[in-house]
């Protein structure tokens, strides 16, 4: 193998390994096309190197042999495990020559490396056998994954150097163990212990089955090593399985980081809103069975913005940590504390017998806040306002109670702050207002009160726009613009989101068509699809009909879906995503990092892009964890073949850090605020010099 030549499609990390064994491997891409050949192989076929490269191996077969070889390559791609097979190739002179192959699929780079052996004539069979054995042993020992060979009873008869390192096996050590007997405990991804006799490996051995997509953790003294395990039966007497152990520990650590990120606040290490919602239902059920009350307290720091603006975000973060600690000291040890983001905290008080008990806790917190915080030799006074709602009096579900407690919090602030307020009939006005919004929303579509604005996405390599995101706005008569965070949840709850979403999709595609006619040809239009829309059976029909009517290139339309919507029913989600993808549309996961992230599922979703939530971007200049997380997500996405967009960039410092973090595109006020269709067209023409 030549070191001075770039081999398209080969993982660069394999170059050192391949260079140790020149003239040993033929390298194929995932389609079975030669992307590297040895001189010896060229001599076998009597073709020049240039005549072989780029051609499929089937180009050197007779038609009758196509099926068998295609099956072998399909098997390699599907099972992703080491395999051996035989082929009969045709030389330039038209003569048949038989080869036996040992092939290793490298799924990450979609490459197959294979070693052939001419078995047409067994010349110098003893020398050839010894040479091949030595070569096989060297390759077996140096391949960058753990390998083990067993006999038919599961006894381990051979391991390579990497496997010996994983399992702390000394060179030349007699194993005297089977797959049933292990030095270390192995666990499944859910944490349960793997019992050897019931393990998938033993079942594959007994049933002579191929095993793939098995993930197990090896618990050692100082660490847990996570493996993706592949196994295939060896069709020779006296042999059992060939087992490959691929170290995926870094990927698992990244998954755990993202999972933690989805359920815990990075600053205070308190549970976040997702974790809180998960725990509320069983708390309410317990209260219902025993006839108890549950208190919901929403806490907000008074004038915290002044501290942030005057002292800086780093100082403000330290205050938030101290506030979280003081709140924890003021409640019972079984009360649940959560940070909802910003300067807002939520406390759940289970097992109350009287509403007044919630007031006792609120007063305890207010009293604790009268003591100043000493930070950087300076006394800092922090006051808080608290809103209280009681289950089941003020609501019987999490959303209602949190909403009502938040309404009570707003009232406490209106009354002068630094106090607590119960949700009362006085706050029913807010509910009335919500009903008014719901009622008017049903007329807004017909009366033309909805509109779209478009925010450009900027490529960080060219600093030119590559797409826009369509954003919905509602101009309420006599009141002005209603924030989307207010009316979108109402639309979701009432089902109006289906009609509104269909209108948004149609109007966005019509706008894109008009831009195409105005000379804007390669700009993508991203449209958000709500959870309810995504689950609706007519989604793909609605999309395809709009594409057909507009006659635009489907690849210019991008559908954005939140990860929480995808994780509610992953099987159905995969099915729907494939239907959308088959229309030629690209798919992005929106607000990535705020839901139930799993890289295992990301590999199954036919997506093209991850959009990192703006909450991480806003803190990237002040929170090292946010910067680290963005960098990690970017690397992981690129390894999965996905592009990465960061939302909410507002400053040059944020942009510089996002560039350094490997982000592909940015969407934010730094480059452009959301624009109406006419102004956005002008912006695109100006930036694209059209």
UniProtKB/TrEMBL annotation:
<dbReference type="InterPro" id="IPR000014">
    <property type="entry name" value="PAS"/>
</dbReference>
<feature type="domain" description="GGDEF">
    <location>
        <begin position="292"/>
        <end position="425"/>
    </location>
</feature>
<dbReference type="InterPro" id="IPR043128">
    <property type="entry name" value="Rev_trsase/Diguanyl_cyclase"/>
</dbReference>
<dbReference type="InterPro" id="IPR013656">
    <property type="entry name" value="PAS_4"/>
</dbReference>
<protein>
    <submittedName>
        <fullName>Bifunctional diguanylate cyclase/phosphodiesterase</fullName>
    </submittedName>
</protein>
<feature type="domain" description="EAL">
    <location>
        <begin position="434"/>
        <end position="688"/>
    </location>
</feature>
<dbReference type="InterPro" id="IPR035965">
    <property type="entry name" value="PAS-like_dom_sf"/>
</dbReference>
<feature type="domain" description="PAS">
    <location>
        <begin position="27"/>
        <end position="80"/>
    </location>
</feature>
<feature type="domain" description="PAS">
    <location>
        <begin position="132"/>
        <end position="208"/>
    </location>
</feature>
<dbReference type="InterPro" id="IPR000160">
    <property type="entry name" value="GGDEF_dom"/>
</dbReference>
<dbReference type="InterPro" id="IPR029787">
    <property type="entry name" value="Nucleotide_cyclase"/>
</dbReference>
<dbReference type="Pfam" id="PF00563">
    <property type="entry name" value="EAL"/>
</dbReference>
<dbReference type="Pfam" id="PF13426">
    <property type="entry name" value="PAS_9"/>
</dbReference>
<dbReference type="Pfam" id="PF00990">
    <property type="entry name" value="GGDEF"/>
</dbReference>
<dbReference type="Pfam" id="PF08448">
    <property type="entry name" value="PAS_4"/>
</dbReference>
<dbReference type="InterPro" id="IPR052155">
    <property type="entry name" value="Biofilm_reg_signaling"/>
</dbReference>
<dbReference type="InterPro" id="IPR035919">
    <property type="entry name" value="EAL_sf"/>
</dbReference>
<dbReference type="InterPro" id="IPR001633">
    <property type="entry name" value="EAL_dom"/>
</dbReference>
